[in-house]
Every structure is written in C-alpha cells, then in structure tokens.
Design brief:
Length: about 600
C-alpha cells in the first residue's frame, strides 16, 4: 500500500465513524472520528509538514488519539484498527450501508431486534411487514428501504442476464426498424449468455450513422448520455444499465460483431490463429500480414478480404473452423473443438418437452395447479412437474406428509379427468435436513412420481460437511434430482461451500439428476461445471423453479446457461418425451 493523502485519510475516518455507530459504540468516540474527518478535509496546510513539525495534535478536531492513526495511514496506507473493526462486523451489515435511506443506527436496530444481517434477509423481512412494525420504522420507512434496495441493484456494477436481456431486446427491435440500419445485433457478455452482464453492446451496420446515433441517445429511457460520437455512443438507461453502440459500414459488420461479442480471451486466441496463418484479424476486418509470401500470391499485398466473409460462419470458416456459438466463446476449448469439428449441437428452448420443479398455491406459489397446467398447455409442453416445498420450509408454507398425500391424490384425479393435454407429475421439493436426512417420511416419498431434494437451511457449514450432507441425499433411493446445488443468489448471496467434483461423482454413481435451476438469480449449478458433469454421464434437468405461470419463461435463461455449459439435448432430461420420462421415473 502506498502512503495516503489528507482526503483519503478523511474518508477512512468517516467510514470508521459509521462502523463504530453500527456497532453501537460510545457516541463520543463516533464524534471524534467524524470531527477528525472534517478537520482533515478543511485543513489547508501541507499534511507532510504538519506531521514533520509534530503539530497534528494541536489541530482543532484532531487531538492526540487520532494523531498516531493519521501518521500510520499517511506513511503506510494501512490501519490495523480499521481492518479489525471491519472484520468484527458482519459483511452484510456493511453492505446495507449502500442502501439509500438506511443509516448505521437503523441497520443496528434491524440487526439487534430482528436479527437481520444480510440484504436478502432484509428483503424478506420487508415482505413480511416486519420492518414496518418495528419501533422507529413504520410503513413509509419500509417502502423507502425497498426502493433503496432496488436502486442499489439497478446501479450496481453488474446486472442479471435476464434484466439485461429484457432491457436490450426492445432497443434491438427498434434499431432494426430504423431505415438507416441494415443489420443490428447485441454483442458482449449478453450475447455470450453470461449469468451477469456489465453493460450492453449494440453493433449496427449502416452507411448513415448520424441519425442512428441521434436516435439512440434520444431514447425515452435514457437517464444520461455519457458519450455521443459520430459512430460510437454510450448511455445509461433509467433502469441503471449502461449501453454502448457502435455503427460500422456494412462490410465490416461481421468483424465488429465478432470482436465485440468477445470474450477477450476468445479474441486473443482467434487473433493468434489468424497470425499463425499469415493474417491479421481485427474489429475492422482480415488483412494479409506483411511479408507472408504464400498468401500474398493469392490476395495481393495488404489486401483486405472481407468481401468473402459476410457472416460469422464465414469468418470461422476462413480460419478452418466450424461455427462457434456465442455462448461458447470464453476462450476455453472452443477453438480446438471447432478445428476438429467437435462443437456439439447445443440444447435449444424448443427442445424442452416439459418442466419439473414448479410451485403452486399449496406452498409459496401464486398460481393454482389448474392455472399452471393451463399455462403449460399453452406452451405445448407434454408434462408438468409440481414440486411444492416440504414442511421444514415453514416460511414457504411447506407441505407435511398429510397435505402432500392429499396433493398427490388431487394430481392423480386431475390427470384422469383429462381436462388438459399436459400430464402432471406429482413431486416435491424436499428439504435436505442439516444432517443430510430428508424432511419427509420414506412412505410418502415412495408414493411420489419424483423428488427434488434441496438445501434451504444451515448454510454455514464447512465444504466437507455440506458435501457429505448433499451426498447423503443423493444416496437416498427416492431422490430423483438435486435442486439449486449451491443456493447462490447472483449479485446478492454467495452460494454455500460445496465440492462440485464429489457431487458430480456421487450423482453419476447413483443415477441422480442435477438440476440447472433456471431462475435468473440462481442459474445453479454454475455453467462452468456442466461439461464435466455431462462427460461423466450426469443428466441435468432445466428447472424454472416457477412460483407463478410467468416463471415458466425462465427456461430461456436456463437453456442459455446450459448452452454455455456445452450441454446437448441428450444430457438434458426434460427434452425427453412423456413416454421416456415415465419409463425413467418408473425404473427408480
Ligand atoms: P461485461 O460488459 O463486463 O459483462 O463484459 P463484455 O464481454 O461485454 O465486455 P465489454 O463490454 O467490455 O466489451 C465487449 C467485448 O469487446 C469483449 O467481450 C471483447 C471485446 N473487447 C473489449 N475490449 C477488449 C480488449 O481490450 N481486447 C480484446 N481482445 N477484446 C476486447
Ligand atoms: Ca458488455
Ligand atoms: Ca461495453
Ligand atoms: Zn428451493
């Protein structure tokens, strides 16, 4: 760490004041840091000089206690007291400080009186009206907290793929309708289907970029124009997401699209491949490299060759590669695979013939069984798996054995009535208890068509304990699949520690399916593990975890994540026909 200046030290003192307040420390101590911070901010003299002349303690507002800390910070840029203070406070409380309308005093009250130590817990408490009924809060203040949380998310550095996609789609559609636009596409991490997206990147082919720039920067949803150039502009949308646009002449479109789709690692590898073949590849096009005799003969020195390349497929083909879908372009093994013609046909949304893991009003869903079935029919799905919560998830109104038995009966009747085309499978999302046992009696579990087993409690176990807990569930004869393996909530909560390799091996050994939870905030198990799982013969089920009929749409996010994990139709259980699924479930 480098030495610190006045402003930086003032900021640290301000933070220390906030943290002490959060801990409920003596108000005099809090005030000492606050006034020390202000004293430094308004200090006109050179800090170096004041320290050298040992006059710090005489400066009004600083005093003896802070003198030493200022000297340490000034010299080393670090302060053990500050680090220890930060470490002594749950990190969730410190994160809560980023919510506008929530100061340290209120956070302390929420923690002390309701035990709230993370933002997701705070969201839950607001939903249950617990915050409103707390002394000193009230409905108004609860509402302010909710909107503060939303704002913090919207303006955070990254966004859920789903939210980015929803923001980009209408812009892309309208772009394509502009008379000046020949082609338009979104690029970047959004096109690659990354689980979170930093900013949107639009690439446009046009011979007349001026009007396109004006249209883009004048969008009604624009909160701020951060750059307005002749061919490149940047905006921030009202929802908080930033977007870049680049307009290029039509022959260059495919090169720009490929370049700005990335990833950086993929681009580096593509450029290396081009160089090894005597070409230089850039966002502008392909050109022959200087001094390479062989290609010079056929193309002429320095000649650009974009005229033969009008689609990304041509670009890959030009370098001896099969087409690489954007989702695979992470600079991992995709170029090797494309060279050998080993890029698989990836699973598509239309391959899905039904979905498991959906909730109804019987637990914490918002739609009834009939409403869910109707929506599944509208999607022409052959089957719909219901999996309401089990009793240990009491906060989600989980079902006990008796209620579940009644639901099974209703579902059997429902299928017999044949009012809908879709076949409903009776399942449950059964809690995996802290010791790895299941939350429901074996008897009722055997009665079900299938069982999703998930962890919903006791997250803070060691990796070993958590892995053993889940493996024990995998070994239970009634378990069909494991739900949301790590419990992560993207941009909000880290998943619990779990050894993915051991889980994958156990799933393979026991013929248990691993869910790819398609909820845009989960996308759990992470796409980075799917290729390994599929290579070991593990099946996945792309599960929307729908709590209302609109939740079915999430399969699109799930399929995108599955594609990033190189998954084909063959490794995705719910691409199978009703007959095949029935046969599979009957065998277990
Ligand atoms: P994001 O926005 O952080 O989620 O991630 P990307 O991948 O969308 O990154 P972004 O928006 O900075 O740039 C879009 C693409 O442009 C990126 O995936 C690859 C390409 N690109 C940008 N900067 C560089 C660079 O310095 N070198 C190379 N090779 N490619 C770059
Ligand atoms: Ca981007
Ligand atoms: Ca960008
Ligand atoms: Zn769950």
């Amino acid at each position: 760490m480098a030495e610190m200046n006045k402003a930086e030290i003032a900021e640290i003192f301000r933070e220390i004041g906030v943290l002490l307040e959060l801990k409920g420390e003596n108000p005099f101590k809090v005030r000492a840091y606050q006034s020390g911070s202000r004293a430094l901010e308004s200090m006109e003299e050179d800090l170096e000089e004041v320290i050298a002349e040992q006059r710090l303690a005489e400066v009004p507002g600083i005093g003896k206690a802070l003198t030493e800390k200022i000297e340490v910070l000034h010299e080393t840029g670090e302060l053990p007291f500050y680090e220890e203070l930060k470490n002594s406070i749950p990190s969730g409380l410190i994160e809560m400080l980023e919510i506008s309308g929530l100061g340290p005093k209120k956070i302390k009250a929420l923690y002390g009186k309701l035990g709230i130590s993370t933002i997701p817990e705070l969201v839950q408490a607001c939903r249950n009206n617990k915050v409103a009924s707390l002394e000193g809060f009230g409905t108004k203040s609860q509402e302010k907290i909710i909107s503060g949380i939303k704002n913090r998310e919207a303006y955070s550095k990254r966004h859920l793929w789903w939210d980015a996609f929803a923001a980009a789609e209408p812009i892309l559609r309208k772009l394509r309708d502009l008379p000046e636009v020949e082609e338009a596409e979104h690029a970047g991490s959004l096109r690659r289907g990354l689980e979170t997206v930093g900013d949107l990147d639009f690439i446009v082919a046009s011979r007349n970029p001026g009007p396109v720039m004006d249209w883009f920067t004048g969008l009604p949803d624009v909160a701020e124009v951060t750059a307005h150039g002749e061919t490149k502009s940047s905006i921030r949308l009202k929802g908080g997401i930033q977007a870049d646009i680049r307009v290029v002449p039509p022959p260059q479109f495919v090169f720009a699209l490929h370049h700005f789709t990335g990833s950086k690692d993929h681009n580096v590898k593509m450029r290396q491949r081009a160089l090894s073949r005597g070409y230089s590849l850039s966002e502008w096009g392909v050109s022959e490299e200087e001094g390479k005799e062989t290609v010079r003969k056929s193309l002429g020195k320095g000649k650009m060759v974009p005229d033969r390349i009008t689609a990304e497929q041509d670009l890959f083909g030009f370098f001896g590669l099969h087409q690489i879908p954007p989702e695979l372009r992470e600079g991992l093994d995709e170029i090797d695979a494309a060279e050998k013609g080993e890029v698989p046909r990836l699973v598509e949304v239309n391959d899905l013939r039904g979905v498991f893991h959906n909730h109804t009003t019987a637990s914490d869903g918002h739609n009834t069984l009939e409403e869910m079935a109707l929506a599944a029919d509208e999607r022409a799905w052959e089957y719909l798996g219901i999996a309401d919560h089990s009793k240990a998830s009491f906060q989600a109104n989980g079902l006990n054995e008796e209620r579940l038995n009644r639901q099974i009966g209703r579902i059997r009747e429902f299928n017999e009535q044949k009012q809908f085309s879709v076949h409903v499978f009776a399942g449950v999302e059964c809690d995996i208890l802290p010791d790895g046992r299941l939350d429901l009696d074996d008897e009722v579990l055997r009665e079900l068509d299938y069982v999703v087993a998930s962890v919903h409690s006791s997250f803070s176990k060691t990796e070993d304990e958590m892995t053993r807990r889940i493996v024990r569930a995998i070994e239970h004869p009634s378990v069909t699949m494991i739900g949301h393996l790590t419990g992560r909530l993207l941009l909000a909560r880290e998943g619990y520690e779990v050894n993915h390799s051991k889980i994958i091996d156990a799933a393979a050994a026991n013929g248990v399916i691993l869910e790819l939870n398609a909820h845009p905030r989960r996308l759990d198990m992470d796409w980075r593990y799917w290729k390994r799982a599929a290579d070991k013969g593990v099946l996945t089920s792309i599960n929307p975890d729908a709590h209302e009929v609109q939740g079915f749409d999430y399969v699109r996010a799930g399929v995108t994540a599955a594609r990033k994990g190189w998954l084909t139709r063959e490794s995705v259980f719910n691409t199978r026909s009703l007959g095949e699924v029935r046969a599979y479930l009957a065998c277990r």
